[in-house]
Amino acid sequence: MRRRTGPTVSLFSFQDIVTSVMGILLFVALLLALKLFQCSVQAAQTASVDIEALQREIAELERDIEAQEAHINRLAQAQLDVQTIDAEQMERLAQRVENLERRAEELLEQVADLRQEYQETAQATARFAEAAEQELKDLDAQLRELNGLVARFSNGDLTVFNVAGFETHVRYVLDMGQQVWIVTRLDSAGNAAENFSFTGSPGERMRRAVEWIRTLPRRSYVFLLIRPSMQNYGWDLNEKLREIGLPHGFEPIGESLEVTFAPPVEP
């Protein structure tokens, strides 16, 4: 058998390298094919979305075109209507416009009259407010004068009151003292028939007195004897009597003045 004496060459490593390179190239080709497939799918989806948007926009444009065409048709019809109006219709339209203008002038005159009336009312209100303020000042002056009269009443004297008038009514005299309020009912002759009192604080007496006068029949007459310490409550109670509508009167008296009642003296 002949033996080789020269060097030997092995191609195994080269074939390995070629096989590896071919595998890598195939793998890269697969990756590129997958990437191209994904890109084509995304492009198809994007194109589908764009096509839908374009279709919606085209539909909107078509609706706008239809609306514009309808408007043009209405204008054309209106132009035809104007062209077909005869002289009589034009005269009626002119008469109607004239009537509207005349009505507008009347409304403007009414507005001017209302403004004038408003100004006159405002001036009258201002005059009334001034008169009311002056009247309040006069009433305040009268009240001060009345308080002065109350202050000038002598204390400690005995006074006999003759309550005349309202004989057909049930007559009551309310003596508003500093410590107690005494209610005296008079008989038909003017003598004291019976009495009762309101005690407690002035506010409590005021509350009970208001409740009492609210229970009185309409044919009742209440006469207030207002002492200086109770003058504010006296004016308030007098106002309550006026609001309720009962006949009433009042007289300011001294703080310590003793009061008795007697029938009125015949003239």
Question: What does this entry look like structurally?
Answer:
It is elongated and about 150 Å long. It has a domain at 158-261: ATPase, nucleotide binding domain (Nucleotidyltransferase, domain 5, 2-Layer Sandwich), CATH 3.30.420. It is built from 4 helices and 7 strands; from the N terminus they run ααββββαβαββ. The model is unreliable at 148-158 (pLDDT under 50). The chain has helices at 12-84, 87-152, 202-214, 231-244, and strands spanning 158-161, 170-176, 181-186, 192-198, 220-226, 248-252, 258-261. The chain has 267 residues and is α/β, with parallel strands linked by helices. The strands form 2 sheets. The protein has a 5-stranded mixed beta sheet. Strands 1-7 form a two-stranded parallel ribbon. Helix 4 links the parallel strand 5 (220-226) and strand 6.
The chain-level mean pLDDT equals 78
Ends apart, CA distance between termini: 191 Å
Percent helix among the residues? 55-70%
CATH topology of the domain at 158-261: Nucleotidyltransferase, domain 5
Unreliable spans = 148-158
Secondary structure tally, helices? 4
Q: State the secondary-structure class.
A: alpha/beta
Tell me the Rg in angstroms.
56 Å
Can you name the CATH architecture of the domain at 158-261? 2-Layer Sandwich
Strand content: 5-15%
- Mind telling me the CATH class of the domain at 158-261? Alpha Beta
Q: Strand-and-helix sequence, N→C?
A: HHEEEEHEHEE
Number of strands: 7
Shape: elongated
Question: Any idea what the CATH superfamily of the domain at 158-261 is called?
Answer: ATPase, nucleotide binding domain
**Biggest sheet overview:** 5 strands, mixed
